[in-house]
Amino acid sequence: QVLEMVRTINKLDMEVCCTLGMITENQAKRLAEAGLYAYNHNLDTSEDYYKDVISTRAFQDRLDTIDNVRKSNVTVCSGGIIGMGEALEDRAGMLVALSSLNPQPESVPINALVPVKGTPMAEMEPISIWEMIRMVATTRIVMPETQVRLSAGRTEMSREGQAMCFFAGANSIFAGDKLLTTPNPDVGEDMAMFKLLGLTPQKPFVKVSQPKTVEASESQLKPLGEKPKWSRPQHAIERNETAKLKSKTSVNTNDV
Protein backbone atom coordinates (compact mmCIF):
# COMPACT_ATOMS: atom_id res chain seq x y z
CA GLN A 1 0.00 0.00 0.00
CA VAL A 2 2.81 2.42 0.85
CA LEU A 3 4.54 1.73 -2.47
CA GLU A 4 1.34 2.48 -4.38
CA MET A 5 0.88 5.70 -2.43
CA VAL A 6 4.43 6.73 -3.33
CA ARG A 7 3.84 5.95 -7.01
CA THR A 8 0.60 7.91 -7.06
CA ILE A 9 2.02 11.02 -5.38
CA ASN A 10 5.17 11.00 -7.51
CA LYS A 11 3.00 10.97 -10.64
CA LEU A 12 1.39 14.18 -9.36
CA ASP A 13 4.83 15.83 -9.71
CA MET A 14 5.27 16.16 -5.95
CA GLU A 15 8.34 15.26 -3.90
CA VAL A 16 7.50 12.23 -1.75
CA CYS A 17 9.14 11.87 1.67
CA CYS A 18 8.41 8.88 3.94
CA THR A 19 9.04 8.25 7.63
CA LEU A 20 8.64 4.51 8.14
CA GLY A 21 11.20 3.69 10.81
CA MET A 22 14.00 1.23 10.19
CA ILE A 23 14.10 -0.41 6.77
CA THR A 24 16.30 -2.92 4.95
CA GLU A 25 18.33 -2.21 1.83
CA ASN A 26 15.80 -4.08 -0.31
CA GLN A 27 12.89 -2.12 1.18
CA ALA A 28 14.74 1.13 0.51
CA LYS A 29 15.31 0.14 -3.11
CA ARG A 30 11.65 -0.83 -3.55
CA LEU A 31 10.67 2.61 -2.27
CA ALA A 32 13.17 4.20 -4.64
CA GLU A 33 11.77 2.48 -7.71
CA ALA A 34 8.26 3.50 -6.63
CA GLY A 35 9.40 7.11 -6.93
CA LEU A 36 10.44 8.06 -3.39
CA TYR A 37 12.31 11.36 -3.27
CA ALA A 38 13.40 11.46 0.38
CA TYR A 39 13.45 9.24 3.46
CA ASN A 40 13.30 10.74 6.94
CA HIS A 41 15.08 8.95 9.77
CA ASN A 42 16.27 11.23 12.56
CA LEU A 43 19.27 10.59 14.79
CA ASP A 44 17.31 12.54 17.44
CA THR A 45 20.30 13.47 19.61
CA SER A 46 23.98 12.66 20.20
CA GLU A 47 25.17 9.08 20.52
CA ASP A 48 26.12 9.75 24.16
CA TYR A 49 22.70 11.07 25.17
CA TYR A 50 20.72 8.67 22.98
CA LYS A 51 20.65 5.91 25.62
CA ASP A 52 19.02 8.37 28.05
CA VAL A 53 16.13 8.89 25.65
CA ILE A 54 15.58 5.65 23.72
CA SER A 55 15.82 2.03 24.89
CA THR A 56 14.10 0.16 22.03
CA ARG A 57 16.98 0.42 19.56
CA ALA A 58 20.58 1.54 19.40
CA PHE A 59 22.10 4.63 17.81
CA GLN A 60 23.94 2.42 15.31
CA ASP A 61 20.60 0.99 14.12
CA ARG A 62 19.62 4.45 12.95
CA LEU A 63 22.91 4.89 11.13
CA ASP A 64 22.39 1.50 9.47
CA THR A 65 18.98 2.55 8.15
CA ILE A 66 20.44 5.77 6.74
CA ASP A 67 23.14 3.68 5.06
CA ASN A 68 20.46 1.44 3.51
CA VAL A 69 18.67 4.52 2.18
CA ARG A 70 21.91 5.80 0.66
CA LYS A 71 22.37 2.52 -1.21
CA SER A 72 19.04 3.17 -2.94
CA ASN A 73 19.96 6.70 -4.12
CA VAL A 74 17.01 8.19 -2.24
CA THR A 75 17.87 11.52 -0.59
CA VAL A 76 18.31 11.53 3.20
CA CYS A 77 16.37 13.68 5.65
CA SER A 78 17.82 13.33 9.14
CA GLY A 79 17.95 15.68 12.10
CA GLY A 80 16.94 15.74 15.72
CA ILE A 81 15.18 17.30 18.67
CA ILE A 82 16.49 19.86 21.12
CA GLY A 83 15.00 20.54 24.53
CA MET A 84 15.01 16.94 25.82
CA GLY A 85 17.35 17.73 28.71
CA GLU A 86 20.50 17.29 26.67
CA ALA A 87 23.66 19.36 27.18
CA LEU A 88 25.07 21.75 24.59
CA GLU A 89 27.74 19.12 23.95
CA ASP A 90 25.00 16.69 22.92
CA ARG A 91 23.57 19.13 20.40
CA ALA A 92 27.05 19.58 18.99
CA GLY A 93 27.56 15.81 19.02
CA MET A 94 24.41 15.25 16.97
CA LEU A 95 25.57 17.78 14.39
CA VAL A 96 29.01 16.15 14.25
CA ALA A 97 27.36 12.77 13.58
CA LEU A 98 25.13 14.22 10.85
CA SER A 99 27.84 16.27 9.19
CA SER A 100 30.20 13.27 9.23
CA LEU A 101 27.83 11.25 7.04
CA ASN A 102 29.19 10.93 3.51
CA PRO A 103 27.46 12.49 1.72
CA GLN A 104 25.84 14.81 4.22
CA PRO A 105 22.03 14.66 4.49
CA GLU A 106 20.18 16.63 1.84
CA SER A 107 17.91 17.99 4.58
CA VAL A 108 18.19 18.33 8.35
CA PRO A 109 15.02 19.01 10.37
CA ILE A 110 15.56 20.82 13.66
CA ASN A 111 12.72 20.11 16.11
CA ALA A 112 12.03 21.84 19.40
CA LEU A 113 10.52 19.43 21.92
CA VAL A 114 6.80 20.02 22.41
CA PRO A 115 5.99 18.57 25.87
CA VAL A 116 2.92 16.32 25.74
CA LYS A 117 0.92 15.55 28.87
CA GLY A 118 1.34 11.97 30.08
CA THR A 119 4.72 11.43 28.41
CA PRO A 120 8.11 11.13 30.17
CA MET A 121 9.10 14.64 29.02
CA ALA A 122 5.83 16.38 29.85
CA GLU A 123 7.52 18.61 32.44
CA MET A 124 10.43 19.76 30.29
CA GLU A 125 10.94 23.52 30.11
CA PRO A 126 10.47 24.88 26.57
CA ILE A 127 13.66 26.05 24.90
CA SER A 128 14.16 29.72 24.12
CA ILE A 129 14.01 31.03 20.57
CA TRP A 130 17.70 31.93 20.86
CA GLU A 131 18.60 28.29 21.40
CA MET A 132 16.76 27.39 18.19
CA ILE A 133 18.46 30.23 16.29
CA ARG A 134 21.90 29.09 17.48
CA MET A 135 21.12 25.48 16.52
CA VAL A 136 19.99 26.54 13.04
CA ALA A 137 23.05 28.75 12.53
CA THR A 138 25.46 26.02 13.64
CA THR A 139 23.75 23.48 11.39
CA ARG A 140 24.08 25.85 8.44
CA ILE A 141 27.79 26.38 9.15
CA VAL A 142 28.69 22.68 9.32
CA MET A 143 26.36 21.62 6.48
CA PRO A 144 26.37 24.51 4.00
CA GLU A 145 24.59 22.68 1.16
CA THR A 146 21.87 21.09 3.30
CA GLN A 147 18.27 22.22 3.55
CA VAL A 148 17.85 23.19 7.21
CA ARG A 149 14.20 22.64 8.09
CA LEU A 150 12.29 24.35 10.89
CA SER A 151 10.12 21.56 12.23
CA ALA A 152 8.15 20.87 15.42
CA GLY A 153 7.74 23.71 17.87
CA ARG A 154 6.94 26.51 15.43
CA THR A 155 3.58 27.18 17.09
CA GLU A 156 5.54 28.53 20.07
CA MET A 157 7.63 30.83 17.88
CA SER A 158 6.64 34.33 16.86
CA ARG A 159 6.97 35.46 13.26
CA GLU A 160 9.96 37.50 14.36
CA GLY A 161 11.55 34.42 15.90
CA GLN A 162 10.99 32.36 12.78
CA ALA A 163 12.37 35.22 10.68
CA MET A 164 15.55 35.16 12.77
CA CYS A 165 15.81 31.41 12.11
CA PHE A 166 15.58 32.06 8.37
CA PHE A 167 18.26 34.75 8.64
CA ALA A 168 20.39 32.26 10.61
CA GLY A 169 20.26 29.71 7.79
CA ALA A 170 16.96 27.84 7.81
CA ASN A 171 15.57 27.52 4.30
CA SER A 172 12.71 25.06 4.71
CA ILE A 173 9.76 24.28 6.98
CA PHE A 174 7.45 21.35 7.57
CA ALA A 175 3.98 22.60 6.65
CA GLY A 176 0.58 21.21 7.61
CA ASP A 177 -1.81 21.51 10.54
CA LYS A 178 -0.14 18.76 12.58
CA LEU A 179 3.25 17.06 12.94
CA LEU A 180 2.65 13.62 14.46
CA THR A 181 1.33 14.48 17.95
CA THR A 182 2.07 18.20 17.89
CA PRO A 183 0.19 21.16 16.39
CA ASN A 184 1.70 23.15 13.53
CA PRO A 185 0.89 26.59 12.09
CA ASP A 186 -1.88 26.83 9.51
CA VAL A 187 -0.64 26.81 5.90
CA GLY A 188 -2.37 30.15 5.34
CA GLU A 189 -0.38 31.63 8.23
CA ASP A 190 2.84 30.33 6.73
CA MET A 191 2.06 31.79 3.31
CA ALA A 192 1.29 35.15 4.93
CA MET A 193 4.62 34.99 6.78
CA PHE A 194 6.47 34.19 3.54
CA LYS A 195 4.85 37.18 1.85
CA LEU A 196 5.79 39.45 4.75
CA LEU A 197 9.42 38.26 4.68
CA GLY A 198 9.69 38.23 0.90
CA LEU A 199 10.25 34.47 0.75
CA THR A 200 9.20 32.41 -2.27
CA PRO A 201 8.36 28.69 -1.92
CA GLN A 202 10.72 26.57 -4.02
CA LYS A 203 9.31 24.45 -6.81
CA PRO A 204 9.78 20.65 -6.55
CA PHE A 205 12.75 18.79 -8.04
CA VAL A 206 15.09 21.79 -8.23
CA LYS A 207 18.20 20.11 -6.79
CA VAL A 208 17.40 16.48 -7.63
CA SER A 209 15.53 15.33 -10.72
CA GLN A 210 12.14 13.66 -10.36
CA PRO A 211 12.51 9.90 -9.73
CA LYS A 212 11.25 7.57 -12.42
CA THR A 213 8.50 5.19 -11.34
CA VAL A 214 8.79 1.43 -11.80
CA GLU A 215 5.46 -0.37 -11.62
CA ALA A 216 5.19 -3.25 -9.13
CA SER A 217 4.74 -5.78 -11.93
CA GLU A 218 8.01 -4.66 -13.52
CA SER A 219 10.18 -4.73 -10.40
CA GLN A 220 13.31 -6.89 -10.54
CA LEU A 221 13.90 -6.63 -6.79
CA LYS A 222 13.10 -9.20 -4.13
CA PRO A 223 9.50 -9.33 -2.85
CA LEU A 224 8.80 -7.44 0.34
CA GLY A 225 8.30 -9.30 3.57
CA GLU A 226 11.65 -9.20 5.32
CA LYS A 227 11.86 -7.38 8.63
CA PRO A 228 14.74 -5.13 9.64
CA LYS A 229 16.98 -6.57 12.33
CA TRP A 230 18.05 -4.29 15.12
CA SER A 231 19.46 -4.46 18.61
CA ARG A 232 17.02 -4.05 21.48
CA PRO A 233 18.93 -2.60 24.43
CA GLN A 234 15.78 -2.54 26.63
CA HIS A 235 17.64 -0.77 29.41
CA ALA A 236 15.53 1.11 31.92
CA ILE A 237 15.34 4.90 31.61
CA GLU A 238 14.42 6.38 34.98
CA ARG A 239 12.34 9.19 33.48
CA ASN A 240 10.29 6.69 31.46
CA GLU A 241 9.76 4.37 34.43
CA THR A 242 8.56 7.30 36.55
CA ALA A 243 6.07 8.29 33.84
CA LYS A 244 4.74 4.71 33.70
CA LEU A 245 4.19 4.64 37.47
CA LYS A 246 2.50 8.03 37.37
CA SER A 247 0.21 6.80 34.59
CA LYS A 248 -0.75 3.64 36.53
CA THR A 249 -1.43 5.68 39.67
CA SER A 250 -3.67 8.02 37.68
CA VAL A 251 -5.64 5.11 36.20
CA ASN A 252 -6.12 3.47 39.60
CA THR A 253 -7.26 6.75 41.14
CA ASN A 254 -9.77 7.33 38.36
CA ASP A 255 -11.09 3.78 38.80
CA VAL A 256 -11.79 4.47 42.47
Query: How much strand?
Result: 5-15%
Alpha plus pi helix count: 9
CA-based gyration radius: 19 Å
Tally the structural domains. Answer: 1
Biggest pleated-sheet summary: 4 strands, parallel
What CATH architecture do you see? Answer: Alpha-Beta Barrel
Per CATH, the class reads Alpha Beta
Structural class: alpha/beta
Oligomer: single chain
Total count of strands: 9
- Widest sheet: strand ordering: 4-5-6-7
Uncertain stretches of 5 or more adjacent residues: none
CATH topology: TIM Barrel
The secondary-structure element order is HEHEHHEEHEHEHEEEHH
Mean pLDDT: 91
Shape: globular
Q: Write out the CATH superfamily name.
A: Aldolase class I
Gap from first CA to last CA: 44 Å
Instruction: Work out the helicity level.
Output: 25-40%
Q: Can you tell me about this structure?
A:
The chain is an alpha/beta fold. The chain has a single domain (about 1-255), classed as TIM Barrel. Helix content is about 40%, strand content about 10%. It has helices spanning about 1-10, 25-35, 45-50, 60-70, 90-100, 130-140, 160-170, 185-195, 240-255; strands at about 15-20, 40, 75, 80, 105-110, 145-150, 170-175, 180, 180-185. The strands form three sheets. Strands 4-5-6-7 form a four-stranded parallel β-sheet, covered by helices on one side. A three-stranded parallel β-sheet has the order 1-2-3, covered by helices on one side. A two-stranded antiparallel sheet has the order 8-9. Strand 1 (about 15-20), helix 2 (about 25-35) and strand 2 (about 40) form a beta-alpha-beta unit. Helix 2 (about 25-35) packs across helix 4 (about 60-70) and helix 6 (about 130-140) packs parallel to helix 7. It is globular, with a radius of gyration of 19 Å. About 30% of the residues are buried. The model has no long low-confidence stretch (mean pLDDT about 90).
